[in-house]
Design brief:
Elements: H1 2-72, H2 75-83, H3 92-105, E1 109-116, E2 121-124, H4 127-131, H5 137-146, E3 150-157, E4 160-169, E5 178-184, H6 187-193, E6 202-206, E7 212-217, H7 221-233, E8 243-247, E9 256-262, H8 263-266, H9 268-310, H10 316-324, H11 331-371, H12 376-384, E10 393-401, H13 404-407, H14 413-434, E11 436-441, E12 446-453, H15 458-479, E13 484-488, H16 498-509, H17 512-515, E14 520-522, H18 544-556, H19 560-567, H20 581-599, H21 608-616, H22 621-662, H23 669-676, H24 680-691, H25 695-713, H26 718-724, H27 730-741, H28 745-759
Parallel strand pairs: 13-14
Antiparallel strand pairs: 1-2, 1-5, 3-4, 4-5, 6-7, 6-9, 8-9, 10-12, 10-13, 11-12
Helix pairs in contact: 1-9, 9-11, 11-16, 14-15, 18-19, 18-20, 19-22, 20-22, 22-24, 22-25, 26-27
């Protein structure tokens, strides 16, 4: 016993130790990976923003360079260059007007000035520039000392900081006779860097010397300079000691664009998440330790039995022993019995599912061949039942055993079963050998098959389908004591029209009367009118069978606009002069009546004779389309919706009546389904549509309504009411009553009695 307890203690201690170490290491690794990933992503994100800023600046200066090139082409400037600044021979008015136009065409430029190297004078757009000519001596001297073609400076002019962009003229000559000066307003830097009042960091620009030229943000100049100094000392690091800094390489004019933000602000949320994660890990670890200590002993008692059950080593004798000694049973014995029952139920359900699966799969195949594949759900169920199809071309086969009725007198039911089984195997082998598809029984001695090929050519696919059908026929004739006839549909690609293809295969088989038995009968050979997808020289742009199928699908889906769109496809027949009017009239009449009767099978048109008279008077395709929309599509959808609404209301009313009659018991939804013979999904849908509530909501409301009546009309105490309404205790009932009504049941009874006394 002591050894067993020691093992328990050791197991618990090791478990807690491993859990604490794992959680700590995992938290640290997640934090490191998250911060590293966040830093790299932030670097990339800010670099993208800085690149856009850099591109804007470069585009701006290229715009000024373009203006300088245009300015250089002026004849007046050429004369100015040749005369070396002799004002009396220079047209200053022309130059000044050009400079003014240049100034007005470039954003964020206060003024533009032309500086003559010969006589060292300024010609500016502003009189203040000309008057303050001496203030520019320092910047011009600095520019000349750089021996470059252009430069950017920020200097004090008239005791105020001024940003100046200088360009030598002429550009493409060695001898320079003039400088062009652009005074850039501080708004330029506001536009490219922004004010960023809601950003905790700073966007900044370093000039070609590495000095801080401009910055915008909430960091002070001293904080930013200190961080940049630390960053430049160790450029291998992504961050400085206090700031997260990212910057681009120097641009073509030597400027460096960057962004800086305090690390505390940058990692605030990450640090909070880290601290919260460690706190939660600690709390969970403590809770796990306490729970493990409290429950280890009880879990240990039942562990061996649970292991036996999981490993399928349990025996029925243990259950009998538990029944013989009920006083020794604990909660683990009850759990064991329950799990044993669940396991047995699961095994039985698996066996039933294995038995039902082929039938369910076969039912899906028949439904697929009748309705086609239109929704994503249909294609998903194909994968669920492991049904493979090729998307290039398909055809449906209807295979019928010739003289099957007379065979019943010659062979037993067992023989006929094996005959049918053998034929289905032959069909399946031929399909799987040359393509993909399925086969299912479709009546006595008849089979329906879907055959698909990876063949994009309709003509070649039709030839292969016919050849494979002949292989099936010849094999069955050789190895079975009977023959078969095979009807073959048109070759199609759209699986939405599988139902039409199946009908075509069955219709083709009807021509066995003419073609004879033991034949492959293609629907194409007996088709009377051209349709889309056929091999005729001039097929119709509209297939009436497919159009009818599409409209029926849209009506059954209650999609008016889709049905109208399908109906409008009849306009494609407009202008085909080879169509016979009587043939087209008959086809349209047949299609409209077929749609009406297919959707509304249990009813017929209120006045078929009047409806037919109306169809006979339609003279244009527009009239037919309008009639199809107004007299067929719209009424049928409205009728389907009304029928659905009435059905939902009946189900909801029946559900409410059942709940009202059984609210003192346990009104289970499963019991209602059996009584009403309605699936649970339909009941839930009806309650949602009619009452916008769930089944449990209505049970609760019904019980609270009954409780209110008892509180008003009887002296029944709250404990008895709670017990009769299937609540575990009075406290639980009072809590739910207050949540629904707003006041406790005792207060509700008191208020109701006061009201009755007031009325009396």
């Amino acid at each position: 016993m002591r050894l067993q307890r020691s093992k328990k203690a050791q197991t618990l201690i090791m478990m807690l130790l491993v859990a604490s170490i794992c959680m700590t290491v995992m938290g640290f690794i997640v934090y490191r990976v998250s911060t590293s990933t966040l830093t790299e992503e932030a670097q990339d994100a800010y670099k993208v923003s800085l690149l856009r800023t850099q591109d804007r600046v470069e585009s701006y200066f290229k715009q000024m360079d373009q203006a300088v090139l245009q300015f250089e082409k002026l004849p007046a400037l050429d004369t100015f260059s040749k005369l070396n600044g002799q004002d009396q021979k220079l047209d200053l008015v022309t130059l000044r007007d050009t400079i003014v136009r240049m100034y007005s065409s470039i954003d964020d430029v206060d003024n533009v000035a032309l500086y003559s190297v010969g006589d060292k004078k300024l010609i500016g757009t502003s009189q203040q520039v000309t008057a303050a000519q001496e203030e520019y001596t320092e910047v011009i001297a600095k520019f000349e000392s750089l021996r470059t073609e252009k430069a950017f400076f920020t200097i004090p002019v008239n005791q105020s900081p001024t940003s100046i962009y200088i360009r030598k003229l002429p550009i493409f000559q060695e001898e320079k006779t003039a400088y062009l000066l652009f005074h850039i307003n501080q708004r330029f830097f506001d536009h490219i860097l922004g004010t960023y009042d809601n950003v905790k960091g700073n966007y900044f620009i370093l000039d070609q010397d590495g000095s801080l030229m401009q910055n915008r943000g909430k960091l002070t100049m001293e904080q930013l300079l200190e961080g940049l100094s630390t960053y430049h000392q160790d450029e291998s690091s992504l961050t400085s000691s206090d700031l997260f800094i990212t910057q681009l390489k120097a641009s073509y004019n030597g400027w460096v664009f960057g962004f800086a933000i305090p690390k505390d602000d940058f990692f605030t949320k990450m640090n909070r998440i880290r601290n919260l994660a460690f706190l939660l890990a600690g709390l969970l670890l403590a809770a796990a330790a306490v729970g493990a200590i409290l429950t280890t002993n009880r879990l240990w008692k039942g562990w061996s039995e649970i292991v036996k059950l999981v490993n399928d080593t349990s025996s029925t004798t243990e259950l009998k022993d538990a029944e013989q000694h009920p006083g020794e049973r604990d909660e683990f014995s009850a759990i064991y019995e329950k799990m044993h029952q669940i396991k047995e139920s699961r095994d039985e359900l698996k066996e039933q599912l294995n038995e039902w699966r082929p039938e369910v799969r076969d039912l899906f195949i028949r439904n697929m061949l009748r309705k086609g594949l239109r929704s994503q759900e249909d294609w998903s169920r194909l994968e669920q039942y492991h049904i493979q199809v090729c998307l290039d071309a398909y055809s449906c086969f209807c295979i019928e055993i010739d003289q099957y009725k007379s065979m019943k007198d010659l062979y037993t039911d067992v023989d006929l079963y094996y005959f049918r089984y053998g034929i289905s195997k032959v069909i399946k082998e031929v399909i799987e050998e040359h393509g993909a598809g399925v086969v299912t029984e479709h009546g006595e001695g008849r089979f329906l098959a879907l055959f698909s090929l990876e063949e994009p050519s309709i003509v070649e696919a039709q030839r292969q389908f016919h050849h494979n059908a002949e292989i099936m026929r010849d094999f069955i004739k050789q190895y079975f004591p009977f023959t078969v006839s095979i009807g073959m549909s048109l070759v199609r690609k759209d699986y939405a029209y599988l139902g039409i293809a199946s009908e075509e295969a069955e219709e083709a088989l009807k021509h066995k009367l003419v073609a004879g038995a033991n034949e492959v009968i293609p629907f194409e050979a007996y088709r009377r009118e051209p349709e889309a997808g056929s091999l005729d020289a001039e097929p119709l742009p509209v297939s009436f069978r497919e159009l009818e199928n599409d409209i029926i699908y849209a009506i059954q889906a209650w999609d008016v606009e889709l049905a109208y769109a399908y109906a409008d496809r009849l306009n494609m027949l407009q202008g085909i002069k080879t169509l016979n009017y009587h043939w087209l009239h008959n086809k349209l009449t047949e299609m409209i009546l077929s749609i009406y009767w297919t959707v509304n099978k249990t009813k017929r048109h209120a006045s078929t004779e009047l409806f037919m008279n109306k169809l006979a008077q339609l003279a244009t395709l527009e009239d037919w389309i309008a009639c199809l929309k107004s007299d067929v599509i719209a009424p049928l959808i409205e009728s389907l919706q009304l029928t659905h609404t009435e059905h939902m209301q009946r189900v909801a009313q029946q559900t409410l009546a059942y709940i009202e009659a059984h609210n003192e018991e346990d009104p289970r939804l499963e019991d209602l389904c059996k009584i009403a013979n309605v699936p649970a999904s339909i009941i839930r849908q009806a309650l949602k549509e009619v009452h916008e509530a769930t089944y449990s909501d209505l049970v609760l409301i019904s019980r609270i309504d009954k409780a209110q009546n008892w509180l008003k009309q009887t002296e029944m105490n709250i404990e008895e009411i709670a017990s009769r309404l299937q609540y575990s205790n009075a406290q639980n009932f009072s809590r739910i009553f207050k949540k629904v009504v707003g006041i406790p049941p005792g207060q509700y009874r008191k208020e109701m009695k006061n009201e009755q006394n007031d009325y009396s």
